[in-house]
Amino acid sequence: MGRTRRGRDRAGTPGPHSTAPAGTEEPWRRAVSSAAEQGAVNTAVDAGQAPEAPRAPGAVRGAGPGASAQPAGPPVWPGSSHPLGARFRTGPDGTAGTNFALWAQGAEAVEVCLFDADGAETRCALTELTHEIWHGFLPGVRPGQRYGYRVHGRWDPWTGARFNPAKLLLDPYARAVDGDFTLPPEVYGHVRDWPQQYIADTVRDDRDSAPFVPKGVVVHDDDDWSDDVRPKTPWADSVIYELHVRGFTMRHPGVPEHLRGTYAGLAHPAAVEHLVRLGVTAVELLPVHQFAHEDHLLRRGLRNHWGYNSVGYFAPHAGYSSSGTAGQQVGEFKRMVRALHAAGIEVILDVVYNHTAEAGELGPTLSLRGIDNRGYYRLQHDQRRYADYTGCGNTLHAGRPHVLRMITDSLRYWVTEMGVDGFRFDLAAALARSMHDVDMLSPFLAVIAQDPVLRRVKLIAEPWDVGSGGYQVGAFPPLWTEWNDRYRDAVRDFWRGALPDVRDLGYRLSGSSDLYAWGGRRPYASVNFVTAHDGFTLRDLVSYERKHNEANGEENRDGTNDNRSWNCGAEGETADPGIGALRRRQLRNLLTTLLLSTGVPMLVAGDEFGRTQGGNNNAYCQDNGVGWVDWSLLEDPQWRELCTLAARLVALRQEHPVLRRRAFFSGRPQAADGLRDLAWFTPAGAEMTEQDWYAPAAALGMYLSGRDIPGRDGRGRQVADDSFLALLHAGDRPLPWVLPGPPWAAEYELLLDTSREDQAAAPGTRHRGGQELAVPARSVLLLRVAD
Questions:
Q1: Predicted pLDDT of residue 764
Q2: Is the CB of residue 70 less than 8 Å from the CB of residue 123?
Q3: Compositional bias (Low complexity) at which positions (predicted)?
Q4: Which residue has the higher pLDDT, 679 or 43?
């Protein structure tokens, strides 16, 4: 087969929908075969039947556009069904070429389509079929070649079959993607603008989508990672920093302008230096898989900024490449990983395997829908519709072997060939569903647990989805850590004065044993966070009580209303110096609480120096100053001081093993003197009783004993550390607090007082055990046992 010509139907003659002068017909009429067939569809639907969709006159089911007019293409040798995707290699007789392999269970024919620099297309039929995988070796096809697939088969949406060879499809295993998804009507497998929208998804659109969609790129495997040293930071020692590749670097003054917003920008010494100075051990990158922008955003002149709309699970998003998109993005990503590893920083990817950018039945046909809709997606009993456990229109069927293979192949690829150190799974509960319910013995979790590569990397679950029974915090098995939203809610509520008592706060500060002390799980199963990309920034959390998402174009309906925030007396920015000082104090309180808590802390880029989104708590479509980190804040001494405090707290945590325990506290006496490894105190200096836990309170004292840390160091020696007393007071008036005396301590040294703008008390300030100390309103005091 050879080159195609746009504007021709399957017989090679002018098609009724492609040659009419612009404006002479409505767009939806030019997309279908004839008015008579349109009427037949409507009549059948009105009669309750499942009609066959209209096709071009004389068309043969399964034949692609221009198929009969195609001259012979280049030779296609049998090739191999393994590995999937496009792999450049040496074939028979030492001939260099590329092996193409695509799983498409229900397909009747598959063509790989090659595109030259001018966009001219050459089609090559893959005639070999092995275990539902279509494959062939194309001699002479080298790295840099752009390609896609056309998959032939039944168009029968009523039974879930949505094959449409007019649509060029992205290889699910493409390791580089050239171009962007703009989503004109031609990209939809059905007639997007059909006047009767309730049946629009059943009417096939026969226009060629190739001129409007990105292409996969053949990539050369030429990297062995022999010069890379992975940090391999233990979970208990980890401090995670969530950032957006583009948003973190777009306004960084130290990053050259041509590198801003790119992988190379994040790898630049100026960007890495901030991470090292802050002391974080891992960056958690918002999605970097190739993603598409939603149609409703493009219509409003916006873009998907966060990237939770994946369409290519093997390809680094081309929009973040400074060096090119014909495969260069792969090398640039690898160099970024190496640079971060050299600085002792791990790379964790936020991955979206729960759904794809193809959305529901009215979404575009970009890849999996056209390859085998029924094979890749969860469908309802009415197979026209998708089971949507994600709120994004569709759900990948991770319980099926070929889908599970795609996911695990992708994960292993990013570990072994791209160098990453772990993954945070968006809406992980959707992946853990078996038939319908979330199942912790599901195929996905079972395969991950036994995989020799994946079980050794960091695995973080967002332990919920939007379906019934989807909230699974504390339920994921060993090996997994989880985003702990109960930590977030408790800490926010405490500092805004909304907790009825301190029971929940006590659990969250000490590692959430009520959620994770089972099955051999450890305190680091809890990823503690106060803010994340989704929601208010830390500064906005203390500046706004209501979301302000008008710029998103959805009339402020999007984003959560449950912010658990407090504006400290004024909504939004204010010149009131008293409110400004209180807000900065609250920020110090929140950061200090987070970094003193047992578990794995997660910071969000820019929170450490007062980044704001102006009250927008859902900035997913704000690829602008709202969604970008504002580095100019560091020029303000007040925000620079906050950053200094964050770095000091991270350093304190890394210096003291009692703050990053590898085992849960017992709360029982560990020695003859009756000291406990963890003790709780009231402001009266007495240990908390059962009654105290249930009494209304806005203050809590936490004593951490450094003498009783379980475990040993690498040489088998007992781990010992200082002991600390943390006093947390969320009330609006100063509080007299009696410091616990012997045997807890004869004397304390005050290390930190968050009521102070300069953050720290004077070095060497000491207080006797049994002495009354005035704790300022809304503050945290950290004291070290001095004897």
A1: 72
A2: yes
A3: 50-71
A4: 679
The predicted pLDDT at position 675 comes to: 85
Largest distance between two CA atoms of the chain: 96
Strand duo 724-729 + 779-785: pairing: antiparallel
Q: Which of 255, 284, 282 lies closest to 268, judged by CA?
A: 255
Q: What integer best gives the mean pLDDT of the chain?
A: 90
Q: Can you list the domains of the chain with their CATH numbers?
A: 85-218 (2.60.40.10), 667-786 (2.60.40.1180)
Two structure tokens written together for 640:
């620079």
Determine contact, residues 563/541, Cβ cutoff 8 Å: yes
Tokens 């020799």 belong to which residue?
Answer: 452
SS (H, E, C) 629-677: CCHHHHHCHHHHHHHHHHHHHHHHHHHCHHHCCCCCCCCCECCCCCCEC
Six-digit token string for 654:
């890394």
DSSP code for 597 = S
Catalytic residue among 128, 358, 361, 426: 426
The answer to whether residue 38 scores a pLDDT higher than 70 is no
Q: Where are the alpha helices (DSSP H) in 656-784?
A: 690-694
- Tell me phi and psi for residue 110, to 5 degrees: -135, 135
Q: Report the DSSP pairing between strands 240-243 and 600-604.
A: parallel
Interval 257-262 mean pLDDT = 98
Residue 282 DSSP SS3:
strand
| The residue type at 410 | S
Place of tokens 């791990």: 346
Both structure tokens of 172: 């699910």
Are 68 and 13 within 8 A, CB to CB? Answer: no
> What would the mean pLDDT of 559-586 be, rounded to a whole number?
97
Omega prior to 83 cis, within 30 of 0 = yes
Q: Are 152 and 107 contacting, i.e. CB atoms less than 8 angstroms apart?
A: yes
Model confidence at 588: pLDDT above 80: yes
φ, ψ of residue 278 in degrees (nearest 5): -70, -30
**Distance (Å, whole) CA 3 – CA 115:** 9
Please give the backbone phi and psi of residue 552, each rounded to the nearest 5 degrees, phi first: -75, -10
The answer to whether the CB of 422 falls within 8 A of the CB of 282 is: yes
Nearest to 657 by CA among 639, 677, 637, 642: 677
For residue 563, give Cα distances in angstroms to 527, 538, 540. 19, 11, 10
Please name every residue paired with 725 in a beta bridge, in sequence order, or none if there are none.
703, 783
Torsion of CA 561, 563, 567, 571, to 10 degrees: -30
Has 223 been annotated as catalytic?
A: no
**762 vs 79: CA distance, rounded Å:** 73
CA distance 447 to 408: 8
Q: Using DSSP, state whether 37 is helix, strand or coil.
A: helix
Report the Cα 419 to chain-centroid distance in Å: 18
Task: Give the burial string for 652-682 (b: 16+ CB within 10 Å, else e).
Answer: bbeebbbbbbbbbbeeeebeeeebbbbbbbb
Catalytic residue (one of 205, 284, 294, 462): 462
User: DSSP string of 507-573?
Assistant: HHHTT-HHHH-STT--GGGEEE-S--SSS--HHHHTT-SS---GGGTSTT-SS-S------TTSSS-
The Cα-based distances of 268 to 262, 306, 336, 347, 558 in angstroms read 10, 21, 8, 15, 35
In degrees and rounded to multiples of 5, residue 480 shows phi and psi of -95, 140
String of b and e for 712-730 (b: at least 16 CB within 10 Å)? eeeeeeebebbbbbbbbbb
Distance (Å, rounded) from C-alpha 132 to C-alpha 62? 17
747 has catalytic annotation: no
Helix/strand/coil for 336:
helix
| Token reading at 564 | 């658990």
Strands 600-604 and 526-528: parallel
